[in-house]
Amino acid sequence: MFWKKYKWHRAASKEEELILNKHGICVVEIEQKKICVAKSGSQWFAFAYHCPHAGGLMNEGYLDGAGNISCPVHGYKFSLKTGASKFPEGYCIKTFKIELKPDGVYIGL
Hints:
The protein is built from no helices and 9 strands. The protein has strands at about 10, 25-30, 35-40, 45-50, 60-65, 70, 75-80, 95-100, 105-109. Strands 1-9-8-4-3-2 form a 6-stranded antiparallel β-sheet, with no helix packed on it. Strands 5-6-7 form a 3-stranded antiparallel β-sheet, with no helix packed on it. A hairpin with a 4-residue loop joins strand 5 (about 60-65) and strand 6 (about 70).
């Protein structure tokens, strides 16, 4: 079995530091890389800053009640859990592991 090793980076020292925009998304920078962070229900998710289809800024996208993020450019929907597209073209958005620990919110790269 293959186990992926992550390099964990603290994105915030507590959840309250992740200030979500009007779309329910914030952007953190880790190793000079912008990553979107969103909360759906009680679960946090981390995903790519740019849409893989047309390069739209995903922090300007929209979350739906089913756990998807929609690109603001063409409305492509991606699962926050898997990154898989809800459209048949086969695009996937990069997702990152995110964990809440006693000393903060961590994202694994």
